[in-house]
Amino acid sequence: MTRAELPASADAHPPTRPLRAVRPVGAWLVRRLWRVQVHHAERLPATGGVILAANHLGVVDGPLLAVVAPRAVHALTKAEMFAGPLAGLLRRTGQIPLDRFHPDPGAVRSSLRVLRDGGVLGIFPEGRRGDGELHRFHHGAAYLALVTGAPVVPVTLVGTRPPGGGLGALPPRGAQIDVVVGEPWRTTQQPWPRTREHVAATSVLLKGHMLSELARALADTRRSLPGPLPAGQSQDDPDTGLVEPSREL
Asked: What is the pTM of this model?
C-alpha cells in the first residue's frame, strides 16, 4: 500500500512522557479508593499500534483506563472536556479532543499518528455514558482498524457506576471494579477507497466480537452491568453508527 493511499496523520505524536509519569500516581490513588482488578492484561499486545475499545458506564471510565491499562493510552475524549478544569492535564498527557457532532479530521490525524507510531489509542464506541451494553456503536474504531490494520482489543468495564446511579455517580469507596481485557480482533487493512458500506459492515463484525467478549467478561467475573441511566439523564450524542432505537431512553 502506497503512502498516497493512506489518510494523512498528524505531524507530531501526542505527548507521552507526562502520561507515563502520572500513571503510577494515578493508579495508586485509584486503588486507594476502590478495589480495582485488571483481568487478562496479557491479551493486550505488548508492542505495536493497538485500538483499545471499551464500554462506557460512568464518569471515571476514561481516567481509570488511562492509569490502569497495561500500556499508556491516548484516548479520544469529547472536546467539551478540554474547556473544563481538566483541560491542562488532558492536553499534557496527550489525550485527543474529539468533536462528536461534526467531522473532525484533526482527531482522525492524531489517532492515526498514535497507531502508526506503535501507540495505544483508547476509544469508547458507544460515544456516551449509559448501560454499557453497546446498544449504540459508532464507526470510528472500525474505520481506524481498516485504515491501519491495527488490532482492536475490547475492554469490559464493570463497577464504574453503581446501579441506578446518574451521569456523575461514583462507585462507593471500597467497591470492586473489574477491567477485563478481551481477545484482540483484526481486520485486513483496506486501501483507498474505503466506502461507507464497507466501514459499516466492518463495524457490525467488530460490535459482534465486543458483545461476545462483554458476555464472557460478565460470566467470568459473575457480575452485571448497572442498567440504564435515570430517566432524563442521557447525554447528547449524534445518531451515527449502529443504533438500536428501541433500547434508547
From this structure: 0.91
